[in-house]
Amino acid sequence: MTSSLSRRSFLTGLSATVLTACTLEDTARTRPAPLMQSGGPPEVPLVRNPGSPIATDPDVRVLLDWPEAEGATSYDVELNDVLIATALSTPGLTIGFGDRAIAPQEGPNRWRVRASNGAGSRWSLPDTFTIESARQVRARTFDFEDPGPLESTVATDGAELDVGAAYAFGGSGQGVALRARSSRNTRAYKNHDQLPIDECWLRICVQPREWSRDGVALNLARIRNRAGDVALDAAAADGESVGDGSDRDDALDAPTEISPSSSELLYWTTGGGVRSTSIAAAADLPSGVWSQLQLGVKSDGSVELWQFDGTREILIGTGMNPGMADPKSQVSFGNINPNLGITFEVWIDELAVGQQRLPWAGVMSDRSVLPRPAPLLAEELDDTFSFVFGSCNNSSLLPYDTMAIGAAARMEPDFTVHLGDHGYPDTGAYRQSGAAYQSLWTDLGHESNVASLLRKPWLMVASDHDLGGNNISAETVVPFASEAFDNYNQNSTDAQPQGRYGTMLLADGEIEMVWLEEIIHRSPVKEFNGPAKTCLGPEQKEWFLRVVSESTADLMIIASQTTIGHVSESGWIQYSAERNELIDACRARDGWTRWLSGDKHTARWAYFEERLVEWGAAAWAEIPQGTPQPAPGVELSASGPAGAFPTRRAALASLGLNGVANATSFGFCEIDSIAGTASFSVRDNNGEVRVQRDGTILEEMIDYRTRPWSS
Fold first, then answer.
1. How many whole angstroms separate alpha carbon 661 and alpha carbon 532?
2. What is the pLDDT of residue 343?
3. Does residue 669 sit in helix, strand or coil?
4. Structural element, H or E, at residue 172
5. At a CB cut-off of 8 Å and minimum separation 6, what does 497 contact?
């Protein structure tokens, strides 16, 4: 497969993250440029490529192409400041992936051409193209984490993982130093759990710095399966309750005894080369130089080890590990051996995991700015538009392909309304601080489905795990977590300085989108349920009631982190007096009102009356919870299917991976402002409208300009 980057342009609407092929459309060829002067060096004005990213698969090819330059006798090509070809007689050079191939790098790639003749030579202006990963599971770039010691999977004494700018690949951002100052205590590593995948690739950048003795095998990273789900058994044995999905990832990280065949290790022999468990051939790993490595284990247990020198990639060797034919459930970086008998320091950066071979890390990527979702701007929406909504995607359940969030991405919505618990940063495998929260959200954006959704704007609602812990309140919100959410979301700040709550007019004012902040102001969930108990706080409640009473919109859509129509241990039912005020206000307005809610891990629908309905979608990617009952004031309702499980291990044991995925859900809304219609639905992990066991179809379409209740 070849992708032309100059004489061709991408079809509009290309979704690069999820593609495994590039669809292209011919455009006119640029005419050759004239010589600047008779007999002078030829000029090559490259056609500017449209900048569409190319999603990589192992067979991708990129054609660097340019028009013929009048009088030129040869061409040289430079890619990412490295001369990759000289004395070409005709335009065009194909680069791609393969043994000894000149390979592009992840992110922006810069290239230019030099045309020569007997009178001299001249470089063209540079052009760029962007490479992105398809089917990527996760990344850990360290760029926005806290400098200092990184929490390891097991307690360490004498060894550490230390995050800092000095250890950064490419000289920008941050990396991590794997360091041992004691020859007896050399173990420091971090596990990352994931849903089992048949084929698993691990990319890592490594630079050895110092070691006290040659010839010692130092582990750098590993891919492992979980024969018998040993790590999940450890979590269950630990007694961690998931509740609403809040089980700690470090419980899943508990060390377990594993057989050698259930892991494929990448290790460096100090003073020598790097190899893996099943591959005897070694790649050079010179001191003080960054080397890029990829270890891949395929579905049949076959293993490949690749290295990249900044220009060409090399297949170091292949092997077979029959025990790794099972799905791969965990990756880790660092050294797992507690007593190597040496001291050492090795720098590690740009860790990434994929379901197929990944592009190589690029030095041109800008790591200075925290990547954030694009803001939602009403004026950029067409007359017809759609959005998805949902909550609760756990960072230990990557990749999201089989989950509802994967189906939501495949809907290609115009924007996303995220209703909270974005990755569970309070429980994840990151050091707990504001920087760690933001870093987790940034790294989640590398997962292919999240990356696809992030191509369009987001409206973000905070839930409890985004702000420091399960069922927290105004008294227990973690300040740095609250600040991290403020720094990350891009919501409109017209109503509140940090965008925590607000309102936005869509469809020329006929639709009003309202979002609420229901954590930072709320009374403790278990507090006595009296008139003074609040979820919104007095200032936000006054604002909301005023917005509802003064709104002239035909349709009001309210984004809430938790359910108002069903009974939930952390839902609006726990704030009944305030809940009644809000419901009464919505019923009093002469217009349609639709609540969108997350938090409770089951698909839901609650019908108060024709003008007031709640659509509940959770979780995008988490285990199900028990089926909730309708709350007071609800005339009709539906929820489930789901079950109540004390741990994620128990849920997986009972339902299996497919059962957990089938229980996930997302919401979908489509607006046609010309016809004046809005459709709402809750959908399953295949993107199909959910049909509940009682036959209820979780879908409706309304003509929001009509008032049937007035007839």
1. 40
2. 97
3. strand
4. none
5. none
Residue 389 in tokens: 């909504």
Which residues fall within 8 angstroms of residue 662, CB to CB, at 6 or more apart?
Answer: 655, 684, 685
422 backbone φψ class: left, alpha, beta (φ>0; ψ -120 to 50) = beta
Element (H, E) at 405: helix 404-410
pTM above 0.85, yes or no: yes
Same domain? 57 vs 187: no
* pLDDT for position 49: 53
Instruction: Return mean pLDDT, the chain.
Output: 86
Residue 329, in any domain of the structure:
yes
Structure tokens at 617: 């979608």
- Residue 41 identity (one-letter amino acid): P
Domain residue limits at 76: 2-133
Residues 6+ apart with CB under 8 A from 528: none
Are the C-beta atoms of 195 and 331 separated by less than 8 Å? no
Element (H, E) at 83: strand 82-88
* CATH code, domain with 104: 2.60.40.10
Torsion of CA 295, 297, 298, 299, to 10 degrees: -160
Two tokens at 475?
């008294």
Give the DSSP H/E element, type plus range, for residue 548. helix 538-550
Amino acid residing at 447: E
Amino acid at 174: Q
- Residue 324 in tokens: 């790794």
Residue 695, domain member (yes or no)? no
Tokens 């018998």 — which residue?
A: 228
Determine which of 39-43, 55-59, 477-481 has the lowest per-residue pLDDT on average: 39-43
What does the pLDDT look like over 166-193, one tens digit per residue? 999 998 899 999 999 999 899 999 999 8
Q: CA-CA distances (angstroms) from residue 335 to 52, 159, 331?
A: 39, 9, 12
Beta strands in 502-658 (DSSP E): 502-506, 511-515, 555-560, 592-597, 604-609, 612-616, 636-639
Task: Give the end-to-end CA distance of the chain in Å, rounded to a whole number.
Answer: 61
Residue 8 has pLDDT above 50, yes or no: no
Tokens representing 143? 């760029």
Nearest to 389 by CA among 93, 645, 665: 665
**Which among 354, 378, 413 is the end of a domain?**
354
> Comparing C-alpha atoms, which of 657, 663, 653, 658 is closest to residue 235?
653
Q: Determine the Cα angle at 402 with ends 655 and 491, to 5°.
A: 115
Our count of domains for the chain comes to 3
Amino acid identity, position 378: A
Q: Which single residue is written with the structure tokens 């659509």?
A: 615
Beta-carbon count within 10 A of 432 CB: 18
CB atoms near residue 215 (< 10 Å)? 10
Mean pLDDT of 474-486: 94
Residues 6+ apart with CB under 8 A from 145: 163, 174, 430, 431, 435, 436, 439
Q: Is the pLDDT of residue 28 over 60?
A: no
Q: Check: CB of residue 203 under 8 Å from CB of residue 197.
A: no
